[in-house]
Amino acid sequence: MNALEGKVAIVTGAGQGVGRGIALAMAGAGASIVVVDQYVDRAVATAAAVGARGVSSLATVADVALPDEARRAVDECIATFGRLDIVVNNAHEVIPGAVLDVTDDDIETLWSTGLLGVFNFMKAARPHLTRGASVINIVSSVMLKTDTSGFALYAATKNAIRSLTRTVAVEWGGDGIRVNALSPQTTSPAWEQWAAANRRAANTIRAEIPLGYLGDAERDVGPVAVFLASDAARYITGSVVLADGGRGHLR
Predict the structure, then answer these.
(1) Is the CATH number of domain 8-250 3.90.550.10?
(2) Quick one: which of 168, 85, 93 has its CA closest to 132?
(3) Which of 39, 154, 213, 235 is catalytic?
(4) What's the whole-model pTM score?
């Protein structure tokens, strides 16, 4: 229950969905949470929910695509808590579209909020990470292992994040800093919006999950993130861990 007691975590894109679920699960495990989101109302709401778990929280608004804002968020964390133990890179804009329909602006957004956002926060956090620290980058089993028609550029970015994760795990491993990727399949406001507009595709995805349901961000994915950030996972790094009800393993 207190696997992360005394630790401090930054979670990007924590205003809703997977990021919020992970933030709440880590709070339940005893960690203080810095909630990073591009929308102030979402950040404040999640920070309040974190506080209701009995731990300290800080809400900060930042665009992960901008290095200066990543550094500011990390600086606020250090100024408030004096340490940083866990970084969860979850924020990433989702822009669907066939390859020929994706615009240059779409590509810039996908790239900057995805791969560059992960890079910005890892680089900003690195001076403050010490032995035993953990970085968790959120990817997607669907985007890594299956036909991604309609999401090609988003999938390409997620695969780039996976590659970056493995490289940084090697580079930072000697200092005792672990870097892993977590691949979830959950409900979220973004999922519900997409599923309402794409009912047949959404039903196909649900039917392909061996456990029979879409996961809950806090109850099904959050505990996996807690494990990866805890000392129980001290010998796991450079891995892609699937928390998707088994769908990715069948692809």
Answers:
(1) no
(2) 85
(3) 154
(4) 0.92
